[in-house]
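The pair is listed for reference:
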Amino acid sequence: MKPNPEREPGLLEGLLEDGRPALQLTAVGLLVSGAFALFLSARREFLPHDVAFLGMSAEQLCALAECRVVYFMFHDRVAYGGSLIAVAVLYLWLTAFPLRRGLAWAWWALALSGLLGFASFLSYLGYGYLDSWHGAATLALLPIYIIGMARSRSRATVSTVAWLTSPDGRAAPRLRRLGRWGLLSTGLGMMAAGSAVLFLGTTDVFVAEDLAYMGVTRDTLDRVNPRLIPLIAHDRAGFGGGLTTAGMLVSLCAWYAPPSRSFYQAVLVAGVAGFGCAIVVHYLAGYTNVVHLAPAFAGAALFTVSMLLEAVAAGVTRPQLRPDATSTAG
């Protein structure tokens, strides 16, 4: 019997397939990391390397300012966890639907957001605290992500026109177009806010409302523990990077993705996770300054109105809306 000249794929090649399983594993890793951040914050516990760095536990630090410094730290960590969950959900949707169909814009959305997300880890150079667990998680996920992107590149060959500017998008009902423009604006606003928080984490760290909430000054924090501000700055920069990455994904999806049930579900879950964690944690911590919360409420309101407009438009044109139908707009 003549042997088959074709090379039989190995186990790893078979598991990786076209790269999407590796990207989905990256998304699951982000999802678990975000959930873990929420879990630890709910238990009001620092990670072991945080305690080692500070030389203090969360319980010991609670003696300062009626525990408001600890609450402040956990409010950043909960918001960061929510942003990771939002990114993970959008990654799962991108790989399961548009990238599966070979749409090039989906690959670029994963590439650009991944570059931004992984690069934001380097912000520690600005505040001087190298989070060993964060670094280990980054080093573990980065090769998986790179392999997934490399193997999926050849699949992403279908060039598409942005849905908002495509014939389908221009012919869509006005409510749907308004909703989609609102969603795009939400994503751009998230990017702007995340960039500001990321910059803040590597420079001043606090705004006036932060110090007023905690009831302390920077000098007080430095006297209590000179390593406290670098640790807080790490949390701030991490949230800023996560929020910016999520905003980029929302913007690109709003611009390119055609209407589909899976798209609305993914964006809705991501929005509830991101805005929900960021807003609810402020009330749990008692940090309810109106000026501080205004951008979050504005973003959440715009997101909600945008999704409602799209939902109403989908109900009006239901016969034309097939779940995840292939479109020339991608």
Observations:
- Residues 319-330 have pLDDT under 50 and may be disordered.
- The two ends are 46 Å apart (CA to CA).
